[in-house]
């Protein structure tokens, strides 16, 4: 009977010792975790790139050549593909750009939400003008916007940006008719008709044909910009601007420039 009473007593004592030991160790553990967290935070802070907050000035824009601007866009796209976009203080840039804008280029892009134009070229606020319309074609409004960008605001490059898996191009190929979409797609039909002698399947189910039409739509748009905008044509002739085009790869994020 005496042994049975002693055993519970010993068990209680041992439990008390264990609990006391755990309580004593908790501050040490907490301090170690806190020290580790502080160290990691310090390391993370040191890894963060300084935010870019300045915007292009009129003087800097004036010194740029069309070829230099194209090179800057190419380099920006390389950073986008590599996942090393420039860290920017957009809030500060908004305030910096409030008194004026001096963008390097004007880019005509499709409406597609999967083509984030500024990010694709690693550009910040005030860096580029972006005009968007499904199918990236030109019309009077787009041409007027481009003329403003180049002749008035001083941009040095006109870039027509098409992209893979373009729904507007697919719709034009298949002859889709729906409300105002019908007349919109008519602007892309010249690119489809360009390949009237193509022997393969001329539907959106044929990737080869779609790829050809996407590229031709960009090139055709460039041609019509020169034809329908004497201002831009003359500026290009004088070397004040350059008009180019490319196609965005939906898988890699890379922009492939097209030969004209």
Automatic annotation (TrEMBL):
Keyword hit for Lyase: yes
Keyword flag Iron: no
Cited InterPro entries: Carbonic_anhydrase (IPR001765), Carbonic_anhydrase_sf (IPR036874)
Signal peptide: 1-23
Keywords: Lyase, Signal
PROSITE patterns: PROKAR_LIPOPROTEIN (PS51257)
Listed GO MF terms: carbonate dehydratase activity
Enzyme Commission code(s) on record: 4.2.1.1
Pfam families in UniProt: Pro_CA
NCBIfam families: PRK15219.1 (NF011765)
Family: Belongs to the beta-class carbonic anhydrase family.
Protein name (record): Carbonic anhydrase 2
Name of the encoding gene: mtcA2_1
């Amino acid at each position: 009977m005496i042994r049975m009473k002693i055993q519970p007593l010993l068990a209680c004592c041992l439990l008390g010792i264990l609990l006391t030991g755990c309580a004593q160790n908790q501050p040490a553990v907490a301090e170690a975790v806190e020290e580790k967290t502080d160290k990691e935070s310090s390391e993370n802070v040191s890894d963060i790139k300084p935010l870019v907050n300045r915007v292009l000035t009129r003087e800097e824009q004036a010194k740029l050549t069309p070829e230099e601007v194209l090179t800057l866009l190419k380099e920006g796209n390389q950073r986008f593909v590599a996942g090393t976009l420039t860290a920017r203080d957009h809030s500060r840039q908004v305030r910096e750009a409030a008194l004026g804008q001096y963008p390097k280029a004007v880019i005509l892009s499709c409406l597609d939400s999967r083509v984030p134009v500024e990010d694709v070229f690693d550009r910040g606020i005030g860096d580029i003008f972006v005009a968007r319309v499904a199918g990236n074609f030109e019309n009077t409004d787009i041409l007027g916007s481009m003329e403003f960008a180049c002749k008035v605001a001083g941009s040095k490059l006109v870039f027509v940006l098409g992209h893979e898996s373009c729904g507007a191009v697919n719709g034009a190929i298949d002859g889709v008719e729906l409300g105002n979409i019908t007349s919109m797609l008519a602007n892309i039909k010249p690119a489809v008709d360009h390949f009237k002698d193509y022997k393969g399947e001329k539907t959106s189910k044929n990737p080869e044909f779609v790829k050809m039409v996407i590229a031709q739509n960009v090139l055709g748009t460039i041609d019509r910009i020169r034809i329908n905008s004497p201002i831009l044509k003359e500026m290009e002739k004088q070397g004040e601007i350059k008009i180019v085009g490319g196609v965005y790869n939906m898988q890699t994020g890379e922009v492939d420039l097209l030969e004209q």
